[in-house]
Amino acid sequence: xxxxxxxxxxxxxxxxxxxxxxxxxxxxxxxxxxxxxxxxxxxxxxxxxxxxxxxxxxxxxxxxxxxxxxxxxxxxxxxxxxxxxxxxxxxxxxxxxxxxxxxxxxxxxxxxxxxxxxxxxxxxxxxxxxxxxxxxxxxxxxxxxxxxxxxxxxxxxxxxxxxxxxxxxxxxxxxxxxxxxxxxxxxxxxxxxxxxxxxxxxxxxxxxxxxxxxxxxxxxxxxxxxxxxxxxxxxxxxxxxxxxxxxxxxxxxxxxxxxxxxxxxxxxxxxxxxxxxxxxxxxxxxxxxxxxxxxxxxxxxxxxxxxxxxxxxxxxxxxxxxxxxxxxxxxxxxxxxxxxxxxxxxxxxxxxxxxxxxxxxxxxxxxxxxxxxxxxxxxxxxxxxxxxxxxxxxxxxxxxxxxxxxxxxxxxxxxxxxxxxxxxxxxxxxxxxxxxxxxxxxxxxxxxxxxxxxxxxxxxxxxxxxxxxxxxxxxxxxxxxxxxxxxxxxxxxxxxxxxxxxxxxxxxxxxxxxxxxxxxxxxxxxxxxxxxxxxxxxxxxxxxxxxxxxxxxxxxxxxxxxxxxxxxxxxxxxxxxxxxxxxxxxxxxxxxxxxxxxxxxxxxxxxxxxxxxxxxxxxxxxxxxxxxxxxxxxxxxxxxxxxxxxxxxxxxxxxxxxxxxxxxxxxxxxxxxxxxxxxxxxxxxxxxxxxxxxxxxxxxxxxxxxxxxxxxxxxxxxxxxxxxxxxxxxxx
Length: 732
Fold this sequence. Notes:
By secondary structure, this protein is an alpha+beta fold. It has 3 domains: about 50-105 and about 455-730, Alpha/Beta hydrolase fold, catalytic domain (Rossmann fold), CATH 3.40.50; about 110-165, no CATH class; about 175-315, Methylamine Dehydrogenase, Chain H. The protein is built from 12 helices and 40 strands. It comes from Micromonospora olivasterospora.
């Protein structure tokens, strides 16, 4: 099931375009495979009927045996599928290598991020040509130094201190990911956690940055997120329950055995998950408690880490709020009688009534507030576009930071300093590479610190945004709703229906698919492909109502909106159905399966990555990761017959029919804890059984998780694999 807007949601982002490929290869053995199985004929999964009954409805699942991850028969089947996929795409090997090389050549492989100041150090990461992972570093701030140091060629800064080298940690492992990277307020300790399987179970460690020693007090099976006490003597962290729900916040004293750690909060309501963080002011530890529709926040003074947590506002069903500390007050971003959220404040000493600060404005979705000593910066969206609003503390008019492009994405970047007049801003569009700005909150000067370089492609030509154009179109949904579409293509791309096109969609969890730049995408655009993003209901592009109209018993709007966008692109001359490939991941993979059943004639191919295609089965099982927390997103089919019937009517696996399906490529990972690998495996098996004339491929990463392979080169290779398949389907 499905970026992570909340880290445990089943979403993927470019990473929206999931990357990586190290799937198993070879021939399958016996087990639950029947018929002739070679690398050029598709594996045939044995049909073993398993019945389940809910609300008087009996369902037969012939492929439930694939749920047994540790069964050699399951592994044999997935291995056979990988061998078949490799054989079926062998003719694309040269194209895959070409696409990989095009991406590699355009990326400055030895690179360095714009350093961020925190206390007496500049913090940054480096990448090195030939190495998969980032190197995390810092350098002391020099006397009188106000501008971030630079290294245009990505080489180490003079006086650099390496805090953590991902390449050394990953040595000997097929997968590597960091869960937390958190330097203590005094700069002495580094808390970091590692995952070597892709199942997002992290081992937490503490490193003494003065000596380089990693302390003995490590903690296994932790979740994302940590917070330091003010004196750096105590570290707070999170663990999960058996259903992978983060449910406990712990207090660990540095140097003490993990067995002495104390539970600060345990959340027993299975709808809620917990998180922990230190406020930017470093005055409070926040324990965030959320369900999909309800919030509660506990605070602990960072100077008194053993103190009892205090409730800012008790949870009220349907009321969401977040807390930011600012001087004598807590800022409260909330949706109480404010569909698109409002901003208020309450006393930090004795939280109580909420005093309005920014009233609710329908159609303007307030998404976050960041507090600095003399300014507030509010992140918001209006008419499908993100923006930043600056509010001075001493009074006076607020203002928005202006950007020239018609379609773009903007937000705050890393800003750890509380007392500052300058904030770091990130910016990108479909044609503008990821950019880092510093914005002066007083003078309103916007300084471009760095735009991620795009090196010349194989033809030696420099990247020029003027060679591409971006557009905003509006499709008309079945119920008359106008649905926005963002598009990018090379200048001069024909509008006579002949252009090939890829359309991407997500549409869940109020996650917005704001415009993003992709180096790998240039290989498609330069071959004449149009790239489109359908901003369908269930996402958050047009505010909370846009989300509400694409969830629960209105979920089908997500699917019909996407089909309407595909039809619009064909009718308006951007492409034609036989030149259109759809793509989506995670909850967007559910979308792909649903539209394959709903409108198979609208697409020439479908790419479904880590697809949530067996949604009803998963949401019926409260023992599975995330299921109970997801009932407020999809409904509870266990308790509600109407929800059961509704989900059964759209879940892709339940609705496979003898249709003329487009070609389908499903990509998944064996260790995924968000969307379990067996969902796409069962889906492909049923497609082959029910509609055998179709062309269906399954590719399983045998050593990765929800986000795919972890190394950047492996990610580029999987993106090349997928893009080669897309180009082949488009006839390019």
